[in-house]
Amino acid sequence: MNARLPQLISPVILDDVRGAQKMLSGVARVTPMEGSRHLTRLVGSPVHLKCENLQRTGSFKLRGAYVRISGLRPEERAAGVVAASAGNHAQGVALASSLLGVRSTVFMPVGAPLPKVAATREYGADVRLAGQVIDETLARAEEYAHETGAVFIHPFDHPDIVAGQGTLGLEILEQCPEVRTILVGVGGGGLAAGIAVAVKALRPDVRVVGVQAEGAAAYPPSLAAGRPLSLEAPSTMADGIKVGRPGDVPFRIISELVDEVRTVSEDALSSALLLCLERAKLVVEPAGASPVAALLGDPGAFEGPVVALLSGGNVDPLLMQRVLRHGMAAAGRYLSLRLRLTDRPGVLAALLGTLSEADANVLDVSHVRTDPRLGLTEVEVELQLETKGPEHCEEVAAVLRSAGYTVLD
């Protein structure tokens, strides 16, 4: 991909982004940038976290939504706006509409997390639940727009949306003028496209790297084909970047201005979220943690100083619980063991005593006594343990073996 001047090829230019920045003054927060000592040591050069998870509504989506709705003609504003989203875009549209005095209707999937539904309503939207998956919800929103004349606010595929999101690129350059690489999560592409427009116009030497989840990576095959392609069934815990097809507007920009699009695994996303929580004390959703996941997966690949954009922090508590467990497992801090013991009083207590001496925290214990593989006096015990890391896992297994236990798995 070639870092040519966006003024020559882009449907969005630097002046559009600067205009959006003026429009957002006093509306969107200039979110902080924090250094990360842990990631700096890992990468070998300075790493900074751009904390857009601390933005109003908890994500960058307010920026594009406000710019898009601000640009509507009076008769369009009078007709109201409609959007479809499982979370971040819904809240951005709801708040932007309220601030501008425009009526908003937001369709959300039936299974959308209750905190996100409640927040969208509190920001002033008329929330309607429709569809089991986002594609069905999107179709219903488009039907509503056709029926009522309300203006459909697309989450990423519009020049005004791209310009609004691009204001983050200007902030990054202002806060970290020495930056050499910017990492940004990519779903439909509006955020990465906007940042690329701003950054490449002012600093063509800065690399802009997009990051997608492996199970929802529509951009790599699309870029190879030279046109947006659709994924049949995108799948990832990072719902903020779970998009099956690139937007036409951002695709054109990304294909010209973004230097690289990488993919990260679910394990890497979990580990990144855990790192943000433990080391940076920041609540970040999986999509927002994707740039950190890229750093963890290949720390030597990025010239520093590096800015990793944490694009959002709206994570459902139940998902957070699952992701944290997944992250701890990926980091080697959970250990699952299966042992075969003689079934007699005191044996389990002795086993637990041995584990205590090994400083392993027992999370769960289950017994199997009816398996045909077991002898009449045998029991199989499965243990879920919390450990301090991979080395401690090996130590715990070694302690058990030295105490005479047979570790089956």
Rg over C-alpha atoms, rounded to the nearest angstrom: 24 Å
CATH class of the largest domain: Alpha Beta
The fraction of residues in strands falls at 15-25%
State mean pLDDT (0 to 100 scale).
Answer: 89
User: Order of SSEs, N→C?
Assistant: HHEHEHHEHEHEHEHEHEHHEHHEHEHEEH
Can you put this structure into words, describing what you see?
With 409 residues, the chain is of the alpha/beta class. The chain has 3 domains: 219 residues, Rossmann fold (3-Layer(aba) Sandwich), CATH 3.40.50; 92 residues, Rossmann fold, CATH 3.40.50; 71 residues, ACT domain (Alpha-Beta Plaits). The chain contains 17 helices and 13 strands. It has a 6-stranded mixed sheet. A 4-stranded parallel sheet has the order 5-4-3-6, with helices on both faces. The chain has a 3-stranded antiparallel sheet with strand order 11-13-12. The longest helix has 17 residues. It is globular and about 80 Å long. The N terminus is likely disordered.
